[in-house]
């Protein structure tokens, strides 16, 4: 059931449209309501219905109970509410007849108790409307309004059974913006949701386009270039290195010894026989790696080693330019620069 935002009840009468603050407010009549038969409210009473046609329309009828009268509104939105109870004493008179002898005193329970409420005293006489305002806090979607005769007042005048609580109408209105105010609350939530979702969606689209551009550029750069991985058997490498003969050994590093080898097609290679303690070998799941053979060894060996290799200045300059171009390509010329 949809949460209610307010409640207006014409006690003891039928549905009634009342003009309030330049708006037409519908007061639901409870004359034909039995218990919880209303949509989102109900009543419990040992009651009778009373009427007086000389008062404003909202006060011409009332619900009267000799003992207890309870109205309850359920499925309310939680929050703070204003409750207005409308009364008019329509049983007693101001004349000198015995009907003027009646006294009606009862208690009102809305969260707090208002003791010894007397309609005639509050209104300044009989047949006069009076509104009693209250504040209520709804935390479990239910608001209960209870009227209770506590044994005070007249019980026999003007006649038996007219001494209990009497109420003409009930107003329950929220102190906050709700669905009854044009859906502003829900619309605000929609606007906030859209405001958050749209920038996120745009950001997501930009990320996807950027990634597609990167992959597209990478594929374009790699088009026509196929990398082939060549595998050699242990027998082939033993033959190429003369069974890893000491005279073929050209160096040794932290990962193991390196041997010069010649394949069956005449290609000269460098074969690294990895140490059993090498992490590189464990990672590669192999104990033998084959590299391109560099006749002059590494650049570091040429620059700082004892090989006796002499590099003139133009050669050194070309090496520096080559290294700079390689770094520039990695950092600037790639569509998706690699992280390293």
TrEMBL record:
Pfam families noted in UniProt: Malectin (PF11721)
Enzyme Commission no: 2.7.11.1
Entry keyword set: ATP-binding, Glycoprotein, Membrane, Nucleotide-binding, Phosphoprotein, Receptor, Signal, Transferase, Transmembrane, Transmembrane helix
Topology class, membrane: Single-pass type I membrane protein
Annotated positions binding ATP: 272
InterPro entries, per database record: Kinase-like_dom_sf (IPR011009), LRR_Rcpt-Like_S/T_Kinase (IPR051824), Malectin_dom (IPR021720), Protein_kinase_ATP_BS (IPR017441)
Compartments, as annotated in UniProt: Membrane
GO CC annotations, alphabetized: membrane
Family matches, as SUPFAM superfamilies: Protein kinase-like (PK-like) (SSF56112)
EC class of the enzyme, as a word: transferase
Catalytic activity from the UniProt record: L-seryl-[protein] + ATP = O-phospho-L-seryl-[protein] + ADP + H(+); L-threonyl-[protein] + ATP = O-phospho-L-threonyl-[protein] + ADP + H(+)
Transmembrane stretches, start-end: 189-210
GO molecular function, one term: ATP binding
Domain Malectin: 7-170
Protein name: non-specific serine/threonine protein kinase
Organism: Helianthus annuus (Common sunflower)
Classification of source organism: Eukaryota, Viridiplantae, Streptophyta, Embryophyta, Tracheophyta
């Amino acid at each position: 059931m949809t949460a209610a935002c307010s409640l207006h009840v014409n006690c003891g009468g039928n549905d009634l449209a009342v003009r309030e603050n330049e708006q037409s407010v519908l007061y639901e009549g409870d004359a034909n309501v039995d218990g919880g038969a209303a949509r989102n409210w109900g009543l419990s009473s040992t009651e009778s219905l009373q009427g007086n046609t000389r008062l404003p329309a909202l006060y011409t009828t009332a619900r009267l109970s000799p003992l207890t009268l309870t109205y309850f509104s359920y499925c309310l939105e939680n929050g703070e509410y204003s409750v207005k109870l409308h009364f008019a004493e329509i049983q007693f008179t101001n004349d000198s007849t015995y009907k003027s002898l009646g006294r009606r005193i009862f208690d009102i329970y809305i969260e707090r108790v208002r003791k010894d409420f007397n309609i005639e005293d509050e209104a300044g006489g009989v047949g006069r409307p009076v509104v009693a305002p209250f504040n209520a806090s709804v935390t479990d979607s239910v608001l209960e309004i209870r009227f209770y005769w506590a044994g005070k007042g007249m019980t026999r005048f003007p006649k038996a059974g007219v001494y209990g609580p009497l109420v003409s109408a009930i107003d329950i209105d929220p102190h906050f913006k709700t669905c009854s105010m044009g859906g502003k609350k829900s619309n605000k939530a929609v606007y906030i949701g859209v405001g958050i979702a749209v920038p996120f969606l745009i950001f997501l689209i930009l990320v996807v386009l950027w990634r597609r551009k990167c992959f597209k550029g990478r594929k374009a750069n790699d088009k026509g270039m196929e990398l082939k991985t060549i595998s050699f058997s242990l027998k082939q490498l033993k033959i190429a290195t003369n069974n890893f003969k000491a005279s073929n050994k050209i160096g040794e590093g932290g990962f193991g010894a390196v041997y010069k080898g010649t394949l069956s097609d005449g290609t000269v290679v460098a074969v690294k026989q990895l140490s059993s303690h090498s992490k590189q070998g464990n990672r590669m799941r192999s104990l033998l790696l084959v590299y391109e053979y560099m006749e002059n060894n590494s650049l570091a060996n040429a620059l700082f080693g004892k090989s006796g290799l002499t590099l003139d200045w133009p050669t050194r300059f070309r090496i520096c330019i080559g290294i700079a171009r390689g770094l520039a390509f990695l950092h600037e010329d790639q569509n998706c620069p690699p992280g390293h």
